[in-house]
Amino acid sequence: MKDKPLKTISLDEVTDKYIGKLGTSKREAFENELRLDLLGEAIKQARKERHLTQEELGRLVGVKKAQISKLENSLTDARFETIIKVFKALNAKVNFNVELLNQTVKLA
User: Fold this and answer.
1) What is the pLDDT of residues 52-95, one digit of tens each?
2) CB 62, CB 85: distance < 8 Å
3) What are the residues whose beta carbons fall under 8 Å from the beta carbon of 36, sequence distance 6 or more?
């Protein structure tokens, strides 16, 4: 009996199958949560590179340590203003891309 070759599928195909197709509400929620996770990880990495504790970063931003922890662990929907303050306190360059009607606008 011959072994069948393994069929490979892309990550996009797996995501479409188990999460939902692009444009569906379930997929949008998944994509937004993934972006928040990446943002939290970026904050955590930048903070550690600057040898700051969560408490020290919180003092620089004007929030409590718990808020920094929640941001890093993506446990909260933080205000955009707070996220910008955190990156400024970390002396990090921030770039955002906003896609509107198939046109990309870069904000720096």
Assistant:
1) 999 999 999 999 999 999 888 877 667 778 888 898 899 888 77
2) yes
3) 74, 77
Residue 98 · residue 107 · CB < 8 Å: yes
Is 103 buried (19+), middle (13-18) or exposed (0-12) by CB count in 10 A?
exposed
CA distance linking residue 50 with residue 46, whole number of Å: 6
CATH number for region 11-107: 1.10.260.40
Question: For 42-61, what is each residue's pLDDT tens digit?
Answer: 889 988 999 999 999 999 99
Q: How far apart are CA 70 and CA 58, in angstroms?
A: 11
Domain ranges across the chain: 11-107
Amino acid at 100: L
